[in-house]
Design goal:
Layout: H1 4-15, H2 19-34, H3 39-59, H4 70-86, H5 91-109, H6 118-138, H7 140-143, H8 168-189, H9 192-202, H10 204-209, H11 214-240, H12 250-263, H13 268-288, H14 293-306, H15 309-312, H16 314-326
Helix pairs in contact: 2-8, 3-8, 3-11, 3-12, 3-13, 4-5, 4-6, 4-11, 5-11, 8-11, 9-11, 12-13, 13-14
């Protein structure tokens, strides 16, 4: 067996930054300036990447399957939009409010997924999202119902940077929040707490037998994932100035699952890679075949499942295995 020092050293090596990571994030922050016409696309990718990483915390690292993760995304979006409209337009304060309320919702909802099988959790998480969707539709005086919550005007970020029509400020704002939360999630998954999450994912009964408090671990990570998803939803509402029922729709939960299927689970950069590929495919295919772009994305998903991502993306998979081996 490995000693405590060896285990701690392994966690530290995994948490160490690689040179390509600095290049990746530097390029991401440079894109709004280098390609100003695509700043809005960069903003969207940053938001959905953060959303995908939040789902990976519970799916890839803890083994909790969810079909209703859009509940927290949409709740954060409406919380930020309502806060800006009725309290104050400061985006930073609104973001903190959305994160706090989404975390509270996640803590309450975590009670529903502590017991039962994966199928039970699928139904419960889906039911939670549908319940919030119908609630947002009925409370039209607050949410705007089917018309959406309109007239959301945001103030400058930190009182200095106003949102522009080209979306550059939005892109840098979303990238900054995504990077900050990514650093926090990276530290979390490469900590002893993250190691216990993986133990729960691999074998819950064995984790309980060695003294890991499985119930509290699931509740805590579910709450954290809800908070991060709420932050992603808040970014969408703040940068678009609009929140609609679409943020709570089942399609939102299904799309983020597709991103993790494409990029890979149990690896935070899998959410980033899946978000980039999915959004670029969506943008390209919807421009070529506006009516049938979902068919082609579905076909790609079927190929990934039947042929295997390892075969289709052999160089990518080889590189990932090399990174893991070196850590």
């Amino acid at each position: 067996m490995k000693s405590v020092d060896e285990l701690r050293g392994g966690l530290l090596r995994k948490a160490r930054w690689r040179p390509w990571e600095f290049v990746l994030w530097a390029l991401a922050f440079a894109l709004p300036a280098l390609l100003p016409s695509h700043a809005l696309m960069v903003n969207e990718i940053a938001i959905v990447a953060l959303f995908a990483m939040s789902l990976d915390l519970i799916l890839g690292y803890t083994g909790i399957v969810s079909l209703g993760h859009a509940a927290f995304f949409g709740f954060g979006a409406y919380a930020a939009a309502l806060f800006a409209k009725h309290v104050m337009p400061d985006p930073t304060v609104g973001l903190f409010f959305a994160v706090a309320t989404s975390a509270l919702l996640g803590a309450v909802a975590s009670v529903t997924i502590l017991r039962g099988s994966d199928l039970t959790r699928l139904m419960v998480t889906l039911g939670t999202a549908l319940l919030l969707l119908e609630l947002a539709n009925k409370l039209s005086d607050w949410t705007g119902g089917a018309d959406g919550l309109q007239g959301v005007v945001m103030g400058p970020v930190l009182g200095l940077f106003s949102f522009d029509l080209y979306g550059r400020t939005s892109a840098w704002y979303s990238l900054s929040v995504t990077l900050l939360l990514f650093l926090l999630m990276r530290h979390l998954v490469h900590s002893p707490f993250g190691a216990t999450l993986k133990a729960v994912r691999d074998n819950r009964l064995r984790a309980m037998a060695i003294g890991i408090p499985v119930v509290s671990r699931i509740a805590v990570i579910y709450t954290i994932a809800a908070a991060v998803a709420g932050a992603a939803g808040a970014l969408l509402a703040q940068t678009s100035g609009f929140a609609s029922l679409d943020v709570l729709a089942f399609d939102r939960s299904a799309d983020v699952l597709l991103m993790l299927v494409i990029g890979g689970v149990g690896w935070l950069y899998g959410g980033v890679a899946g978000a980039i590929v999915f959004k670029l495919l969506q943008d390209t295919l919807s421009g070529v075949t506006p009516q049938y772009w979902m068919f082609w994305i579905g076909l790609i998903l079927v190929l990934l499942v039947l042929v295997g991502r390892d075969r289709l993306l052999r160089p990518w998979t080889w590189w990932r295995k090399r990174e893991r081996a070196s850590s």
